[in-house]
UniProtKB/TrEMBL annotation:
Residues 4-116 form the UspA domain. Pfam families: Usp. SUPFAM superfamilies: Adenine nucleotide alpha hydrolases-like. This is Universal stress protein. It comes from Sphingomonas aliaeris.
């Protein structure tokens, strides 16, 4: 099965990328893998405080991904796979792609204004020629109708 890997965060462009991936998956008989990344832990002398911060980040990330999965199910009927990982985003993405040969494309959303974001910058730059799958960068300026028309 063709899987579209989408990185979801709180940005509007992540929702646009998710909608595009879902529409493509429906049309190609594929699926969607939602990945939410949490920043790596910072080890310090205040372990209890750090543990509380990490737990709050995890709860927030789980709520974010649950909302995205619910929207995806409601709009497309697809039940996505969900992955929540902590650490270096590009490294985690490369590991996921290497571990799952069904992942057919990495779908990222680019901000409508300003910098495109660290993952888009990384994968369109440093790793652009070495990914074993296509990279789809979805412009954050697209409307729902634009996405439906293009996907």
């Amino acid at each position: 099965m063709r899987i579209y890997l989408v990185v979801v965060d709180e940005t509007p462009e992540a929702g646009i990328a998710l909608r595009f991936a879902a529409r493509r998956a429906v049309k190609t008989g594929g699926g969607v893998e939602i990945l939410t990344l949490m920043p790596p832990s910072e080890f310090g002398p205040w372990g209890g405080v750090q543990a509380t911060i990490e737990e709050e980040a995890r709860v927030h990330a789980e709520a974010l991904v649950a909302g995205a999965a619910g929207t995806l199910l409601e709009e497309s009927g697809l039940r996505p796979s969900i992955t929540l990982k902590q650490g270096d985003g590009p490294k985690i993405i490369r590991e996921m792609i290497a571990a799952n040969p069904d992942i057919a494309a990495l779908v990222l959303g680019a901000a409508a204004a300003g910098a495109p974001g660290p993952l888009v910058t990384h994968f369109a730059g440093a790793d652009a020629g070495v990914l074993p799958i296509p990279l789809m960068i979805i412009p954050g300026s697209l409307t729902r109708d634009d996405i439906d028309r293009l996907s």
